[in-house]
Amino acid sequence: MTTIDMKEELYKAQILVEALPYIQKFNRKIIVVKYGGSAMVDEDLKRKVIQDVALLKLVGFKPIIVHGGGKEISSWVKKSGMEPKFINGLRVTDEPTMEIAEMVLNKVNKSLVSLLEELGIKACGISGKDGGMLRVDKKLSGGEDIGFVGDIKSVDTTLIHSLLKDDFLPVICPIGFGDDHHAYNINADDAACAIARAVGAEKLAFLTDIEGVYRDFNDKDSLISELSTTEAKDLLASGTIGGGMLPKLNNCIDAVENGVSRVHILDGRIPHCLLLEIFTNKGIGTAILSEEAEKFYNADIVC
Amino acid sequence: MTTIDMKEELYKAQILVEALPYIQKFNRKIIVVKYGGSAMVDEDLKRKVIQDVALLKLVGFKPIIVHGGGKEISSWVKKSGMEPKFINGLRVTDEPTMEIAEMVLNKVNKSLVSLLEELGIKACGISGKDGGMLRVDKKLSGGEDIGFVGDIKSVDTTLIHSLLKDDFLPVICPIGFGDDHHAYNINADDAACAIARAVGAEKLAFLTDIEGVYRDFNDKDSLISELSTTEAKDLLASGTIGGGMLPKLNNCIDAVENGVSRVHILDGRIPHCLLLEIFTNKGIGTAILSEEAEKFYNADIVC
Amino acid sequence: MTTIDMKEELYKAQILVEALPYIQKFNRKIIVVKYGGSAMVDEDLKRKVIQDVALLKLVGFKPIIVHGGGKEISSWVKKSGMEPKFINGLRVTDEPTMEIAEMVLNKVNKSLVSLLEELGIKACGISGKDGGMLRVDKKLSGGEDIGFVGDIKSVDTTLIHSLLKDDFLPVICPIGFGDDHHAYNINADDAACAIARAVGAEKLAFLTDIEGVYRDFNDKDSLISELSTTEAKDLLASGTIGGGMLPKLNNCIDAVENGVSRVHILDGRIPHCLLLEIFTNKGIGTAILSEEAEKFYNADIVC
Amino acid sequence: MTTIDMKEELYKAQILVEALPYIQKFNRKIIVVKYGGSAMVDEDLKRKVIQDVALLKLVGFKPIIVHGGGKEISSWVKKSGMEPKFINGLRVTDEPTMEIAEMVLNKVNKSLVSLLEELGIKACGISGKDGGMLRVDKKLSGGEDIGFVGDIKSVDTTLIHSLLKDDFLPVICPIGFGDDHHAYNINADDAACAIARAVGAEKLAFLTDIEGVYRDFNDKDSLISELSTTEAKDLLASGTIGGGMLPKLNNCIDAVENGVSRVHILDGRIPHCLLLEIFTNKGIGTAILSEEAEKFYNADIVC
Amino acid sequence: MTTIDMKEELYKAQILVEALPYIQKFNRKIIVVKYGGSAMVDEDLKRKVIQDVALLKLVGFKPIIVHGGGKEISSWVKKSGMEPKFINGLRVTDEPTMEIAEMVLNKVNKSLVSLLEELGIKACGISGKDGGMLRVDKKLSGGEDIGFVGDIKSVDTTLIHSLLKDDFLPVICPIGFGDDHHAYNINADDAACAIARAVGAEKLAFLTDIEGVYRDFNDKDSLISELSTTEAKDLLASGTIGGGMLPKLNNCIDAVENGVSRVHILDGRIPHCLLLEIFTNKGIGTAILSEEAEKFYNADIVC
Amino acid sequence: MTTIDMKEELYKAQILVEALPYIQKFNRKIIVVKYGGSAMVDEDLKRKVIQDVALLKLVGFKPIIVHGGGKEISSWVKKSGMEPKFINGLRVTDEPTMEIAEMVLNKVNKSLVSLLEELGIKACGISGKDGGMLRVDKKLSGGEDIGFVGDIKSVDTTLIHSLLKDDFLPVICPIGFGDDHHAYNINADDAACAIARAVGAEKLAFLTDIEGVYRDFNDKDSLISELSTTEAKDLLASGTIGGGMLPKLNNCIDAVENGVSRVHILDGRIPHCLLLEIFTNKGIGTAILSEEAEKFYNADIVC
């Protein structure tokens, strides 16, 4: 090895060693990754997300992927000669649409299993129907019937824990049962949040298409690194938060208030954003934290 | 209760008691059910098959369902504006066809999970990609490339055993990985046979659209109840067996020669054909047996 | 198979399928069967009771048999040249009588083990002395010393749970230890009730020689199907209940108030009465229920 | 404490310490004790045998008691107005005799359980019928039918191992099943030997009414301390051994040749003969040893 | 064997049998032995203490040894050319002293492991640093800095339980970690007490160089056999207790009030004092008991 | 984050991802690290070795440290006023020298435990005496008595496996028992090799003070990267290998021929040499491999 080679190798070793405290901190902890948006469309980003999750698994974390499939569902609905319809941003899901949604979500699901398998990770792709995991109530949108769209009312974690115990990585698509035993479509953010709560995840990370939460959406310098739930509620009350961020932030608060220590809104367009968030002190995106988590975070990692 | 009521109730109790030796015989044994054909199209038959499997599970057996989805794949291929193509009876499976096949098979898969769930059975629908279960080689058909069609080269049973151990009923659709990490379509009969061998199933039952194996296909009285593998091979050598029965019979022989004690070709058009086969001495369909199984069968059940 | 044969077979299959919800409901639940009376004398009834218990075991229940041996004890006491003596319906049990009682009860015990063994069920016959299971206080009858007759003061369930865990069916005869380490005879109803409470049985069934509880013993149409504990207490307070039913009903109330969901007084003279009670909605005999059990019963089984 | 008291206490402590290597040697080893003869009739000897077995259990051995009940069976047969009958030293066991034999053996069985219980030892009294443990063939005596007398053809050790695992001391009476599912009487020496072989006991000890094996029965100084199986066979061939010792010695050889390291013929009339044999170097009675055991014995214990 | 030999052997057997109730009483209970003083200097006494502990282990107790090394540390400090220094009876422990203390304590530790090994006992010698067991705060002595001397603030029992579960006997030397990750010396009495509390020991025995606690130190007849914690506190309040006994008695009270049933101050100069205390009713030394322990003690052992 | 920061962070993430296949390859495999030489003297190198081992543990490997203490033993021998003596390179180890050796080795042992503890790793420092792990024969050096120096004759791995199972990192110093129960000093290379063989390690790494094995020691360009055992033997036969490398290379061959797949001679003077060897394809030092390992190595890691 030349001296320059050696210097680079030593630098690499140094970086691995710097990962020590982060690996230690989340060892055997469950991390739920809500996977969606651009990171799911761009093949290169996709591969990097899967590499990140694979690494988390190998160094001792217990990751769970919950994914959506929004755009691809619409494209297949059109292929079948129908027109996608939305009310208040919610897909109107009649019988044939639900059938297509289930097909597409399962296809996406198994493609993620494939990518993990390629990296040597044993994964198992399931939906909320398997093991009777997700039970839903029919969701109404402003009083209107929007078809087979559901609100989660209970999560049976038996199958998830069974898979984790035997070292499989669960990849979950957000479909559940109604009391009529019919399949219902579920918002993927809601599913990720409900699952993170039910399994007592240490961390829940949303891969999104935005940089994080802005105090003032028009001021790119106002990105918020960390928010306590109190601050997050104040922000919501101030009325400056809108669009898709509103339900997402509500989900974050809900998760933190129900036992998930840290919820992250990450910019899925940044390659390896998951690793960057977990293995560096330079936070990216916005973290919503419980008071305990904040304290723990500061005390624990001293490089 | 009236006397007539009581008489009927006693008759029912008697029937339950008569099931005793059969329940005992297969207690904690694995039974692989290849589910396909009419029994998958007719809604009433479908429900009865699922009831049978549910009962087998509840009385202590360990059933595994392996299913196909042939007709529905073709119908969705057409819906997408393509024309299904076959060479030597094998579906030519190009990229878009494979995509549709995977979507349809997963849809069918989850619908079976739903039906079991309705009966209170915890099921988990997986494909051969999950847990890296089915690895395949590319199949050629008379030297011609027919696309993503695979021959199973190895079965990793870890996930299946993990699910069985934790009391989930595995429902499996026949898709596997190639060495190129691509998804490949697998003949469902082949998959059922390979899985039955790999898990050391006690029994493998094919639900088909025929009454069984005929010594002379034109003579409806020549239905064969039991065949040893030697007899089955003689029959194949005689050249009287043809059509879809030929590969099926080869599969049966292969399974029996690799440790599955009993393989059954059942008429899936008869309601509750699974229960009839297992809980009565009046065999239906054709059984291919190892010599040991024959002896065991006769010795064990004395009503 | 002829068409008529087939029709009958299908009817049988249907009956098995109808058992599904009942099997499911009691899966892995403990059922204590107090076995006595005519069902123990008549060889045909005896065989049917044992068949019922064997079936319950095979379909996943955990039955425990507690039996008496009253008439046979008296007959052996006479054989030995003594005269059976009773005070207030309780056998005066001097040393030689106790010796004979223990011998006879153990003989009956092992004969039940034999019958189960014949049906392929692994049973283990024990008395309350084994594993130090039953500890008693000396019972007085109206102030009179009636010898080695005991009231249970504690139940050590270690041995029972050990046998159940390793899949043995416990057959128990009601003999216990006094503080003087002497063997004491225990009323079999009391023993069944105490054991059912101690192991947290789901169900306790008394096989008796009566049809059940009558509101008016002289009116055969007044048989009561279900009683809550409150109603049972009212009935006792009304003074219409007498004879052997009085302590039995007290036992039932005691069991239900201590965690056993359902206690049944069955007519052991009806063949397969256990199966009839468990696998049909047409109740036979009288059930004493907790309020929760009643609700559960109605909600759960919808055919 | 006075000086004299203290001196005695120190002597006691010394004795306990001297037991160290013996306790260590048999730690967690199975010891089968065939209990019979005078040690079963004399109440004081009985109590001392049970104390010995209790101590063995408490210091970490796994004792199993196999007992007979010969004299008491005859006495109860007479009580019932029948006359005991023997052919070639074997009891002619017709149906009523078998019934009494089973009753008496179970009575003896539970009385040993009682004595152990009194010393705080959790015991479980079973017969060879429980758990389907002992299966027999009908034994003929010189071609004559002697009724329900059996030769053991197989031992199912599941129940024994289950009890040992959960820390119960098995007390076993020698009754087994024939292929006709009837109970058969078994010679207790044979049963002890078969069980010791089947469970892989380290040691098998026969409590007898003789001092051991004599080279010349008329010369009291010719008592043999140790015999290899070869020597034992030579002795048998020499024709000097007769009476009840002949089958017993054959049993010993059989046990040693099938994996039991040491078989002892002890004089049950000596109080604490079991402890004396195990905890001292001064052997009492006669030991039949495998070559390995002899070597091991000499090498291991150096006080 | 001669008659005289036999008589002595029987006496020995009798002594072993008399140990039965004591063995039973502490079966699988944890006993912490604080080993120090003369019993650690005299080679013969040392061997006897180790024999006692070995016997306790073999008969089913779970002993843990916690030892000091006081005199030997001073001697090695001097050997290294330094002068041992004490303030208020506490060793001033600068860096080089701590280094020597750790070396000497580990040497003593491994020599005890050797002695146990010689008796066939699998031991594992650890310090409070292993498995992060003992965490300390720096101790001040009347405001003065006395170096690396620590007060235990937490005990992590994972390693101890891990060793006990796998049947190793833990031998522990009293060194712990400070928050500065430096090694700190801990008083062995304090360590034994803290460990006994943390593992929920049944008994804690201090081997000392005194006969026990005297009501009046100058009156040798005033040795106290048993003290309740209330009595012990009164004694302390009376001001008659002084010297090294003061902190020891405080430790005893602390242990009893935190779940250790019985704490013993034994005279380590009496050979086999541990066995004498445990296996005889003639108490030696002084026992500090909880009220429950007193009651239990009297009720349980009736010879 | 600035763009430059981000670029560096991404580079770091990339390096972590590149570690994926290496982490995967040794997941749950045992790696024995012989720790000695400069890497043990230089405080900075020491810390880096411990960081490396900690990282290996955290990412799922099972490292075991075996260490020496050569130089420090001599320094303490001198401190005690004695003169270190060597014959043929082996320390003459009389009683007082052995005492010091044991003290020093245990001190070093616990200091490594401390460093690991500081990084949050649960370690347990043991010697070959603990759990009776290392048994030795007295070693002679050319016929001369060199005192308490031992050759390992057996390794009892119970304690090591017990610690690994419960997630402790074993740190082992090379002292064992002789048949005289005395402590014997063992060459640390020999101990590491014997332990690696006994536990079936995947890898054994020697941290040394040389760069590796040279084909020609005077030609710095002749460093050998990989050697099969055949090549290593040829090299030894050629006579070009001398000094301390000779026994080390023999150890390497011995280990590989007894089941350790890969043995590495690393330059402990290079910081993070362990990580560099394991996480990069650019080998450092010399690897001695089995034929299978070579093949496996090339096939498996394709970056």
TrEMBL record, chains A, B, C, D, E, F:
InterPro entries: AceGlu_kinase-like_sf, AcgluKinase_fam, ArgB, Asp/Glu/Uridylate_kinase, Glu/AcGlu_kinase, NAGK-C. Pathway: Amino-acid biosynthesis; L-arginine biosynthesis; N(2)-acetyl-L-ornithine from L-glutamate: step 2/4. It catalyses: N-acetyl-L-glutamate + ATP = N-acetyl-L-glutamyl 5-phosphate + ADP. GO terms for molecular function: acetylglutamate kinase activity; ATP binding. One of its GO terms (cellular component) is cytoplasm. HAMAP family: ArgB. Belongs to the acetylglutamate kinase family. ArgB subfamily. The keyword ATP-binding applies. Its EC number is 2.7.2.8. GO terms for biological process: L-arginine biosynthetic process via ornithine. The record marks 34, 248 as: Transition state stabilizer. This is Acetylglutamate kinase.
